[in-house]
Amino acid sequence: GLLLLFENGTKASHPDDETSHCRIQSAAALASFIEDILNPFKGLEEDKVVVDVQTISPFILHLIYKAAAIVTERLHLSIDLELNLKKARTFRKILKLMGQRWLAGGVSK
C-alpha cells in the first residue's frame, strides 16, 4: 500500500506549493522505500544470494515486481537515469532468480 501511495504522490499535478511539497516528500519516500526493497538482495551483484528464495512469499514477489515497474517507468520518463538503470538491472536479476522457484514448481517428469 505504501508503495502505491508514494508512487501516486509523485504524480500530483496541481501547481500550488502544498502539492509541490507533497510531490517532493513522496519522491523521497518512494526512493527510500525502493532502496529498502533492494537491500536484502545486495549480494546479487557479486552472485551471492543472501535471501532464501524457497521461503519468500508470493506477496513479496508482487512487491518486487511492482517496484521494478515503478523504476522502469521512471527510466522511461528520464528521471535519474543512471541510478534507475542500476536499480532496474538489479530488479531484473532478482526477478530472474525468483522466477527459478516458480519454474521449478511446474516441472513434471
From TrEMBL:
Domain of life: Eukaryota
Protein name, per record: Uncharacterized protein
Organism of provenance: Dendryphion nanum
